[in-house]
Amino acid sequence: MLVFLITATGMLHTNTPCIILGVLLHYSVLASFCWMLVSAALQFMRLVTIFGSQRIPHLLLKACLFAWGAPLLPVTVLLSVDIQVYAPDERGFCYPGGLAFYLAVLCPVLMIVTANMIVFGMILQHVCRGSAIKRHMQSERKLTMRQVATSVLLFFLLGLTWIFGLLAGFSTLCAYLFCITATLQGFVLFLFFVLGEKKSRHYWTRRSAIRKPNTSTSSTPAERVALRQRDETTHL
After folding, report:
1. What's the pLDDT tens digit per position in 15-29?
2. Average pLDDT in the 120-134 region?
3. Long-range contacts of 177-183 (CB under 8 A, 24+ apart)
4. Cα(235)–Cα(192) distance, rounded to whole angstroms?
5. What is residue 61's three-state secondary structure?
6. pTM (two decimals)
7. In Å, what is the CA distance from 92 to each residue of 17, 34, 126, 166?
8. Residue 210: CB partners within 8 Å, gap ≥ 6?
9. pLDDT for 66-124, tens place per residue?
10. Domain limits of the chain?
11. Which of 24, 68, 75, 158 has the highest CB neighbour count under 10 A?
């Protein structure tokens, strides 16, 4: 996002710095989408496949190699074919255009968004099917809220907000929806993974409870020990 802001403002519009920014922007955009694809695969393994049957050794290392390594391929190809595709255009924007944009930017993005849409549909189908089995155990409202929450989380986590971005050229409404949803992606993930997770809330609450006695000058060592023991008992 920082590279995009620098490129969009045109602060470095000379040839060489602009080419460097264009390369970094192209690489970072593709890397972001590759991480969204990794997220889709992980969520599919967690929510659809049988837990434990798809355990992959060195999963994080392999995910990093793919997400950070795959974007190097189209960037390297463009650099080897014609480095000037990253030169500033008539608007002063440093980014591939024309055929290079369609082949090295739009095609990979479309492939990943399409794959994530398929995974999104499969996960929702699995979640709804599992909810139908559990319907006699939980209330209808609770199950519906869980389905809605899962749908919203996956929509942002898998980068499906970019569907609006791909359609922005055909509809002003899609352009506004893209600007709103894309900028809220990090905030929505924070709500679900930090505020919405009981373990995360307990972790930060526990850390705050431990810090307060340590920073207080009025508490005695015995009081601090008692507070720590009480916190450990609550955690257990």
Report:
1. 788 888 889 999 999
2. 74
3. 181/156
4. 22
5. helix
6. 0.73
7. 12, 28, 47, 22
8. 227, 228, 231
9. 999 999 999 999 999 988 888 877 766 788 888 999 999 999 999 999 999 999 888 88
10. 198-236
11. 158
Q: What is the DSSP string of 199-222?
A: HHHHHHHHHHHHHHHHH-SSS-HH
CA distances from 208 to 133, 203, 223, 225, 228 (A): 40, 9, 16, 15, 12
Dist CA 142 CA 177 (whole Å): 28
In sequence order, which residues have a C-beta less than 8 Å from that of residue 66 and are 6 or more positions away?
34, 38
Distance (Å, whole) CA 56 – CA 35: 17
- Which tokens sit at 35? 């991480």
CB-CB contact of 64 with 34 (8 Å) = no
